[in-house]
UniProtKB/TrEMBL annotation:
InterPro entries (alphabetical): MEIOB, NA-bd_OB-fold, OB_MEIOB_N
SUPFAM superfamilies: Nucleic acid-binding proteins
CDD domains, per the entry: RPA1_DBD_B (cd04475)
Stored Pfam families: OB_MEIOB_N (PF24903)
Signal peptide: none
The protein's name: Meiosis-specific with OB domain-containing protein
PANTHER family xrefs: CELL DIVISION CONTROL PROTEIN 24 OB DOMAIN-CONTAINING PROTEIN-RELATED
Domain of life per record: Eukaryota
Biological processes per GO annotation: resolution of meiotic recombination intermediates
Keywords: Chromosome, Cytoplasm, DNA-binding, Exonuclease, Hydrolase, Meiosis, Nuclease, Nucleus
Cellular component GO terms held in the UniProt record: chromosome; cytoplasm; nucleus
Record function comment: Single-stranded DNA-binding protein required for homologous recombination in meiosis I. Required for double strand breaks (DSBs) repair and crossover formation and promotion of faithful and complete synapsis. Not required for the initial loading of recombinases but required to maintain a proper number of RAD51 and DMC1 foci after the zygotene stage. May act by ensuring the stabilization of recombinases, which is required for successful homology search and meiotic recombination. Displays Single-stranded DNA 3'-5' exonuclease activity in vitro.
Amino acid sequence: MAHSFASKTFTALSDLHPNMANLKIIGIVIGKTDVKGFPDRKNIGSERYTFSFTIRDSPTHFVNATSWGSEGYIRSLSDSFRVGECVIIENPLIQRKELEREEKFSPATPGNCKLLLSENHSMVKVCSGYQVDNKLLALIYLPVKESRDFYSLGDIVANGCSLDGRIINVLAAVRSVGEPKYFTTSDRRKGQRCEVKLYDETESSFAMICWDNESILVAQSWVPRDTVIFASDVRISFDKFRNCMTATVISKTIITTNPDTPEANILLNFIRENKETNPLDDEIDSYLKESINFEQLKVKASKNEGKADPFYGILYAFISTLNIDDDSTTVVRHRCSGCGYVVKEASSTCTACNKDSFEFKSVFLSFHLLIDLTDHTGTLHACSLTGSVAEETLGCTGSADCIFTQTGCLWISLNRTAICIIICFLQHAVENSSGMARKGAEPYRMRPPRPWEERSSERRPLILIAHLGLSQCFLTLVCSPVSLWN
């Protein structure tokens, strides 16, 4: 068999020692970093490229390998294999690792050696699955840390800021995997980001952030509510932006997908038994964590001015200004029932979607109110209360019969001005939804979505959004096409 052949032909990782030569090593790739470029000190103006990976040939032995060379060679080598594939390394240089320096940025390994691959002398070959013994392939399901050496998500949340900056192990199930987001930094470097939501028996939603392509590729293979991961050496930090604890995949991190351990099997049984639970409940719960006041809001807005990143929170406030005597034309707007665009009252027809004169779309009335919101720290002026959120707040619709009793309708709302508003303070699109509201808060119950809401690309629970400009804040509705009402 391949494994017995390997034992006679290949050098075991447990037998490595510095200055060994003419070796041939086989192992399964359990971790891998992105390609990076650095200025070449010998050739000013040029760059050297590198990437690292970790291979394993037994339950107790694994080693880091690093390759340096030209951009073309390094990128080609990196693209030739992925995490979970078996490789044969020929003629690597065996070096003694500098423990403190190496393991600060690389996965911790049990031995005292590392592999250095040369562009001119070393070679890496990918093995096909049928060439490798199943015992070697099964190593991908064994965590590199002791199976009981992990924090539950509830423990992380409970410890809070005391774990800020700590590197720990996490065992959790995958609740959702976000789409990768690509960006360009101020120094014109390309970057990417992917947010994975985790959960377990103790916590319904916990964010883990991936910043490198390799971990994002692995994450894209995970099946939500059917995958368990053991993430060794992730960095835990307190996200001031969202006021909650998060995990970040770093260069030291090795993630084991569906680990073959008793603890992982218990968690897997838990998620399968609770698979029928409405995932929307967890999504709503993710908003219900912490509150924010106006003073904190304004500080965040000033710091984030000009940035596209959103931030979230729940605001406890009351309506301090509501003009009940305003002209009805400024309180109610005509909207097309087909596309939702504002229609000029004079024409009463939508120019955006009424292409066929024989099939005109109907027009309906929708509230558009300017209000001030106040809490114990200050006031947010000129917030726009619109659409179905206004209808829920006022307790009536923007229909014609309501317009005639407009003042009475608005007075009704003033009798219950103490409100709890889940809001997302936004400079750009709704993104990275993470829990910020207080547990136990009652979510809004909405009427069925309008036609334009049904076609919306947003698939999120009800939130209120505040677009923060220099002089005013607009408060409006984003409603998920998924039903939020009973």
